[in-house]
Amino acid sequence: MRDTCDLNLTMRKADLPRFAPFVDAQPDEKWWDDDDQMANPDLTTVCVYEANYGWLKQREAAAQAGIPFYGTHGEGGEYGAGGFASLDGEMFDAPLNNEGYMFIAINDELNPVDDIEALRAYVAKRQAVKQLFGINKEDGGNGRSQEEDAPPDQQDGGADVSAGVRPA
Predict the structure, then answer these.
(1) 67-109, pLDDT tens digit by residue?
(2) Residue 152 falls within a domain, yes or no?
(3) 166 lies in a domain?
(4) What is the Cα–Cα distance from 151 to 107, expressed in whole angstroms?
């Protein structure tokens, strides 16, 4: 059975061949559909357009093998969008809403359905992976400048794009 979504995975370029066996590819084979060059030439964000079940089992196996990475996947028919991070043989996940923000689901009595501690663990793991990769908060957390991440109409070389402010 197939239930596919888009997946974005940030990792060291040197780990691409190590990840390949977990997605039934050869180490020298390109197993992703597209990639995004980051400011750090040792890192890449690869995109997979039809990752079955968000490659959950593949990501878990790669995490257990000690490959550090983080990323997001879209929603599928049986699961919502999510973020994930892998470091030191562990992988943590968090639900994401349609705008890419983490959230905690609540029930009709306004009690949390999800575990806030699991969300905190995911955030800590994601930050640890980014720190390992040399990605800091000032660059938007992805290794690129905020201007590179801004929509084209906000890339003016001086506007405060982090606040969504454009010059008049």
Answers:
(1) 999 999 999 998 999 999 999 999 999 999 989 899 888 899 9
(2) no
(3) no
(4) 36
